[in-house]
Amino acid sequence: EPAERNAVYGDNIAKYLVDLHDNQGTFDFCGGMMFQLVLSDSLRNYLEQISSDDGEQQPSIAKERRMNQLDGYSQTAKADNVRIFHGREIRKVPDAAGGMGFVLQLSMANSEDPEGWSPQEVAGYDGWGHDSGRQWRKSDQYEAEGFQIFKQRFGPEAFGLHHRFYLHYDNANRIWLSAEDGCEGTPSVSGSSNLLRKVFGF
Predict the structure, then answer these.
(1) Contact call for residues 122 and 107 (beta carbons, < 8 A)
(2) pLDDT confidence of 202, banded at 50, 70, 90?
(3) What DSSP state is assigned to residue 60?
(4) Are the C-beta atoms of 44 and 21 separated by less than 8 Å?
């Protein structure tokens, strides 16, 4: 719940995201599709570092309900690890929390993240369009393009689609993780409760 989340984390969104990842938290997308949040190792380490450093800029949570409403928005592949993140929806992951085989992976942009977007993903990005007209990638293609541990992390049958994501609040102060095309999810009720119970004993 927002009140419990705020009592524990306040403005430390980096810590909140790390704890969701560490505890296999799920986001309820599109009214019942449970996606496990998975951070790349590089992004998790970065967020853990800034979570304990008051001088670093935390991930921001917008008031705008769509990415194209953000100040300075443009249809590009750019991300800054603060307002906008690189990510992927990955399907057919055999051990994904939530029981549906869905993972939402976030990775570091503008860095040498081994799990980050490949040059091919950056060059071909068109995430403002409908999924049906975009290029989905299978495990062999991910590994050929540089994500060499894709099968190890998600299984040989997994496939995915890359998106830019951002965080925003709704009128009830819930946090939503929203893709550029408007598909979005909020931490599942059971996932949020389990997180606070595991980490802080609520």
Answers:
(1) no
(2) very low
(3) P
(4) yes
Rounded average pLDDT over 2-12: 91
* Number of helices (H), then strands (E), in the chain: 7, 9
Instruction: From residue 114, give the alpha-carbon distance in Å to each of 42, 47, 90, 109, 185.
Output: 8, 16, 17, 11, 26
Residue 109's SS3 state is: coil
Share of the chain above pLDDT 90, in %: 83
Determine the straight-line distance between the first and last CA of the chain, rounded to whole angstroms: 11
Which candidate, 93, 73, 61, 96, places its Cα nearest to that of 184? 61
**pTM score, whole prediction:** 0.92
Helix (H, G, I), strand (E, B) or coil at 138: strand
Helices 13-22 + 41-51 axis angle, to 10: 140
